[in-house]
């Protein structure tokens, strides 16, 4: 088994790259999705979030109101740290459970996560990622994509500024996936990445 941590700034196209790798045979674990699950209805982190911030954090379905939570933690380092201290250990447990469920065999696993650089998600686990790939796109392209999703320009820029920089991600990455062009170009780049991952996987197996 070979485990890749896949990251990239908002609007860069990380999830698209994860999908393309999944189509080629990778087992993709949506770590950002696990984060939503942790505070969703029945989530393992719901009780701790309510204990920290109060009963008003509940939504109508019994999970956490993510919009209300975002108001508290966005731009407040202490509050964000408190949330991360609740959610990240649970997410890492869930990552291990997902990988345990895959079982032994010839597999390439991709941990699709936004805040790889900024956290120990996927690394403080029994099955840590061994390699890192980061997805990049020009800032103008990223902003256009986010605005195309209905995000206000100022909000899009604030979210980008709140994340690690491309340079920060590149510093720990073995692979940089450029996504400033069209889908055909991206498919070609991901195809090359997949071939290299297969080579490294086979090399690891000996």
What report would you give on this structure?
- With 206 residues, the protein is of the alpha/beta class.
- It has a single domain (2-205), classed as Rossmann fold.
- Helix 2 packs across helix 5.
- The chain has a five-stranded parallel β-sheet with strand order 2-3-1-4-5, sandwiched between helices.
- Helix content is 53%, strand content 13%.
- The chain contains nine helices and five strands; from the N terminus they run E-H-E-H-H-H-H-E-E-H-H-H-E-H.
- The model has no long low-confidence stretch (mean pLDDT 93).
- The chain has helices at residues 14-23, 31-38, 46-53, 66-73, 77-102, 139-148, 153-161, 166-172, 183-205; strands at 2-8, 27-30, 108-112, 131-136, 175-178.
- The chain is globular, with a radius of gyration of 18 Å.
Write a compact overview of the structure shown.
The protein is of the alpha/beta class.
Write the layout of secondary structure elements.
Blueprint: E1 2-8, H1 14-23, E2 27-30, H2 31-38, H3 46-53, H4 66-73, H5 77-102, E3 108-112, E4 131-136, H6 139-148, H7 153-161, H8 166-172, E5 175-178, H9 183-205
Parallel strand pairs: 1-3, 1-4, 2-3, 4-5
Kindly list the characteristics that best describe this protein.
206 residues; alpha/beta; Rossmann fold; 53% helix
Spatial strand arrangement across the major sheet: 2-3-1-4-5
- The CATH homologous superfamily is called P-loop containing nucleotide triphosphate hydrolases
Instruction: Please write the string of helix (H) and strand (E) elements.
Output: EHEHHHHEEHHHEH
Structural class: alpha/beta
Rg result: 18 Å
Major sheet: 5 strands, parallel
Q: Please, how many domains?
A: 1
Distance between the termini: 12 Å
**Tally of extended strands?**
5
Determine the mean pLDDT: 93
Separate helix tally: 9
Poorly predicted parts: none
- Named at the architecture level, the CATH assignment is 3-Layer(aba) Sandwich
How would you classify the quaternary structure? single chain
Assigned CATH class:
Alpha Beta
Strand content: 5-15%
- CATH topology, anyone? Rossmann fold
Apparent shape: globular
């Amino acid at each position: 088994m070979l485990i890749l941590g896949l990251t990239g700034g908002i609007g860069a196209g990380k999830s698209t790259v994860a999908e393309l790798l999944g189509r080629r045979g990778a087992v993709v674990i949506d770590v950002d999705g696990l984060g939503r699950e942790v505070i969703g209805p029945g989530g393992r982190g719901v009780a701790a979030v309510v204990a920290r911030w109060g009963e008003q954090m509940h939504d109508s379905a019994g999970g956490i109101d993510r919009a209300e939570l975002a108001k508290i933690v966005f731009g407040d380092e202490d509050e964000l740290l408190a949330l991360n201290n609740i959610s990240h250990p649970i997410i890492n447990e869930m990552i291990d459970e997902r990988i345990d469920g895959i079982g032994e065999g010839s597999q390439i696993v991709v941990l699709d996560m936004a805040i790889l650089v900024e956290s120990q998600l996927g690394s403080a686990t029994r099955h840590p990622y061994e390699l890192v790939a980061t997805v990049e796109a020009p800032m103008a392209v990223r902003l256009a994509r986010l605005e195309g999703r209905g995000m206000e320009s100022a909000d899009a820029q604030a979210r980008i500024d709140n994340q690690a920089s491309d340079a920060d991600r590149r510093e720990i990455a073995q692979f940089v996936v450029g996504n400033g062009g069209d889908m055909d170009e991206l498919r070609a780049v991901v195809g090359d990445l997949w071939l290299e991952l297969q080579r490294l996987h086979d090399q690891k197996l000996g």
